[in-house]
Amino acid sequence: MQQRITINLNTDSKTTDKTTILEYCRSHGIAGIETPCGGKGTCGKCKVTVTKPYYKDVLACQTKICDGMEIIVERKESTGTKEDSMVVLTNGENVSEKINEHVNEHVNSNVVLKEETANESEKVESNEDTLAACDIGTTTVVCYLIDKETGQIISTRSGANPQRSFGADVLSRIDAAARADDNDKANGGLQMMQTQIVSLLNGWISEMLTECGRTKVSRFSVAGNTVMCHLLMGISPEKLGKAPFMPDEYFGRKFNPLDIGLENCQIMIIFPAVSGFVGGDITAGMMETVNCNELTLYLDIGTNGEMALGKGDRYVCCATAAGPAFEGAQIELGMPAAKGAVDKVWLEGRRIKYSVIGNDRPVGLCGSGLSMRLPFF
Ligand code: FES
């Protein structure tokens, strides 16, 4: 799929000739450019074709725009990029408890959410029968609307995290959040990423409420890694990018959704982080394992990988880079393990042999292909 874009600086107050093609596309909602390194110029994945005033393939993050420039943003069907092949997991084995009992039994007593008394206006307006829950992942976002009485999921939305244009991993996002936009000082990376995620959630919640004939969410529970929660709240995650990696905020309390522009929700609760890289997504997931008297291993293998091992009230946790680290995200020809990816490389005599997923034309190297290839260098 091709998008042909013409840049007209005279009618666009947000951009100048110092703006890069990537910045222009981000601020105009033009999707399709892969940016695993977040615009540092190191991954080589953000190539677009300039057709006017010159003809050249360029890196969108390194090339400045000019008036009248024409560019083609191309999404190749066979590259196996996540946009082409992304399947977001939204279903699984469901817990049998009613949601409110579950929350009362596990969350309030163990994960130490700081309860605050709802003020009178909250009590009056609250539509007590509708809850929402959201998992904000570095790569994907999933949101559910839940009937509080039955605990049933009544509507679901899922998709790519729009902040991916600022980089595939949390370190790229931390870096981008710290960077100001040269053309729009009041609208740097942090504000842009916050706007992106809040807009996505606003759209989904509004759609789901309409679909289910409801008007308001009484409680919106958010689970995400510590960086994603900082970005949602517009808090700089800069400290998470350098030792000792201590967050500014551990969450685990109520927030007023309107403070971040989130509409149609009465109260927002963000699950507590344990440390900089063991975030609310882990504590939310561990609701199933706390108070279990058997040794339990909890795994969350996403863009970041975390594990927690323990039983009862004692667990040890650790976290490391996972997803893009196995997809060659920072390698020019790296790609997910999708059609066209070289997944195995071996020697037969003096000849290098390889296999390609889908027996197709090779397009790039996925993680296993890359690691098997390394000994030959
Ligand atoms: S985003 Fe341009 S080189 Fe990585």
Structure description:
Strands 7-6-5-8-10-9 form a 6-stranded mixed β-sheet. A 4-stranded antiparallel β-sheet has the order 1-4-2-3, with no helix packed on it. It is 22% helix and 26% strand. The longest helix has 24 residues, at 189-212. Residues 76-84 and 96-127 have low confidence and may be disordered. The radius of gyration is 22 Å and the shape is globular. The chain folds into 3 domains: 2-78, Ubiquitin-like (UB roll) (Roll), CATH 3.10.20.740; 99-288, Nucleotidyltransferase, domain 5; 337-376, no CATH class. With 377 residues, the chain is of the alpha+beta class. The structure holds FE2/S2 (inorganic) cluster (FES). FE2/S2 (inorganic) cluster (FES) is lined by residues 35, 37, 39, 41-46, 59, 61.
Concise structural overview:
This protein is α+β, with helices and mostly antiparallel strands and 377 residues long. The chain is 22% helix and 26% strand.
**Mean pLDDT, as a whole number?**
81
Q: What's the CATH class label of the largest domain?
A: Alpha Beta
Give unreliable regions as ranges: 76-84, 96-127
Largest sheet: 6 strands, mixed
CATH topology of the largest domain: Nucleotidyltransferase, domain 5
Strand content: 25-35%
Number of domains: 3
Series of secondary-structure elements, N-terminal to C-terminal: EHEEEHHHEEEHHEHEEHEEEEEEH
Bound small molecules, which ones?
A: FE2/S2 (inorganic) cluster
CATH superfamily of the largest domain: Domain of unknown function (DUF4445)
The total beta strand count reads 16
Instruction: Label the CATH architecture of the largest domain.
Output: 2-Layer Sandwich
Q: Based on helices, strands and strand pairing, what is the structural class?
A: alpha+beta
As laid out across the biggest beta sheet, the strand order is: 7-6-5-8-10-9
General shape: globular
The number of distinct helices, counting runs of at least 4 residues, comes to 9
Whole-number radius of gyration? 22 Å
Question: Which range best describes the helical content: under 10%, 10-25%, 25-40%, 40-55%, 55-70% or over 70%?
Answer: 10-25%
